[in-house]
């Protein structure tokens, strides 16, 4: 099957005046969700697939924006005509979560109660809050049940949450490079990144917009920390090794000496140009808080008993941020409940970033699973 680009796409938005109760006890009184759709919803509205985004991604899953160079969606290699998630067969929806900085209501928007940007006053949001917001958007679109919900990393956590909060509304769940909760090490990485932002002199207790500044230094460091965890040691060694930036050592404690340092600074600089610091704090905290088994005494098997969907779980051997062992925990809990689950552990060198990259085996597994779902629709 030949795959082609989905072409130019246009974001849409829906405003919600109905208050959204949050797990923290706070309420998001008035909010807008930005989303994109690809493909065509069939007459029975049974071919919808919700794709959930990870930390620094958005509703822009696939396609390009007219007049913008290098504007491909973050999963453009996987979603589109003839691709593993085939938009000739499925109606795909990408939603930007509340608290983000890509259009949906978040810290950069005006707080109607004060007339000032929310900043640090934006309420703390959780994975479950995002799923509730997504469910309301599907209600507006007239979609009662999803053919599938899919996500990688933090997006995979949302996919799992869907099967627990709205079990009757999901027929299949595809959870990629994810975990049932964060390890202590992962929480530690997130905390160091948050401290880098909060300790930036331009942070101003989260109200930097009112001061006309951006805590770029903190954002740069936060991104550098995160990026290290997304790559495997093998990939970093292969791409950079101990290559020097100049011909000789400069014997400096502050200048860039190694190519890996240059790469990380480039990634940090680029990130600080488009991402919001308060959003980074909110989303990493949502990662920390996700732990559906907490309500069941830490017993994941008891937790997953509520699910009725069929599952595909995918992990990558060199992903040490969300290791295969964490995916196997999910699989075991599903098997213990006699739920139908397929599991693929891909031997890929790329680390956590593998879920975003081209890998024939990985894409083959996803393609085969969606072909199975398409047959159910026929």
UniProtKB/TrEMBL annotation:
Occurrences of domain AB hydrolase-1 (ranges): 47-357
Entry-linked HAMAP family: MetX_acyltransf (MF_00296)
EC number of this enzyme: 2.3.1.46
Major site of localization recorded for this protein: cytoplasm
Family (UniProt): Belongs to the AB hydrolase superfamily. MetX family.
Alphabetized UniProt keyword annotations: Acyltransferase, Amino-acid biosynthesis, Cytoplasm, Methionine biosynthesis, Transferase
Subunit structure and binding partners: Homodimer.
GO cellular component: cytoplasm
Name of this chain's protein: Homoserine O-succinyltransferase
InterPro entries from the UniProt entry: AB_hydrolase_1 (IPR000073), AB_hydrolase_fold (IPR029058), HAT_MetX-like (IPR008220)
Species this protein is from: Caldimonas caldifontis
Single GO molecular function: homoserine O-succinyltransferase activity
């Amino acid at each position: 099957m030949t795959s082609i680009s989905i072409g130019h796409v246009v974001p849409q938005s829906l405003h919600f005046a109905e208050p959204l109760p949050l797990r923290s006890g706070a309420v998001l009184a008035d909010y807008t969700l930005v989303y994109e759709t690809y493909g065509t919803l069939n007459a029975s509205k049974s071919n919808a697939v919700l794709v959930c985004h990870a930390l620094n991604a958005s509703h822009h899953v696939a396609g390009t924006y007219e007049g913008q160079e290098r504007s491909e969606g973050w999963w453009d290699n996987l979603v589109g005509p003839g691709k593993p998630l085939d938009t000739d067969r499925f109606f795909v929806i990408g939603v930007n979560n509340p608290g983000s900085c890509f259009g949906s209501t978040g810290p950069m928007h005006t707080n109607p109660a004060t007339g000032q940007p929310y900043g640090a006053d934006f309420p703390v949001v959780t994975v479950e809050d995002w799923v509730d917001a997504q469910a309301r958007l599907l209600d507006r679109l007239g979609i009662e049940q999803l053919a599938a919900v899919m996500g990688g990393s933090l997006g995979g956590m949302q996919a799992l949450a869907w099967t627990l909060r709205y079990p009757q509304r999901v027929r299949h769940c595809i959870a990629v490079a994810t975990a049932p909760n964060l390890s202590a090490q992962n929480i530690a990485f997130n905390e160091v990144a948050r401290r880098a932002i909060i300790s930036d002199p331009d942070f101003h207790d989260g109200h930097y917009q009112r001061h006309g500044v951006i805590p770029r230094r903190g954002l740069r460091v936060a991104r550098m920390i995160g990026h290290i965890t997304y790559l495997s040691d093998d990939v970093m060694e292969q791409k950079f090794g101990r290559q020097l930036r100049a011909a000789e050592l400069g014997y400096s404690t502050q200048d860039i000496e190694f190519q890996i340092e240059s790469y990380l600074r480039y990634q940090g600089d680029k990130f600080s140009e488009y991402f919001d610091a308060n959003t980074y704090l909110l989303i990493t905290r949502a990662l920390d808080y996700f732990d559906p088994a907490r309500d069941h005494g830490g017993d994941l098997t008891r937790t997953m008993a509520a699910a009725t969907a069929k599952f595909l779980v995918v992990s990558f051997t060199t992903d040490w941020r969300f290791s295969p062992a964490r995916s196997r925990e999910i699989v075991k809990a599903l098997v213990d409940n006699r739920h139908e689950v397929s599991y693929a552990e891909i031997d890929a060198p790329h680390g956590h970033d593998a879920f975003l990259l081209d890998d024939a085996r990985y894409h083959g597994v996803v393609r085969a699973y969606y072909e199975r779902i398409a047959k159910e629709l026929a």
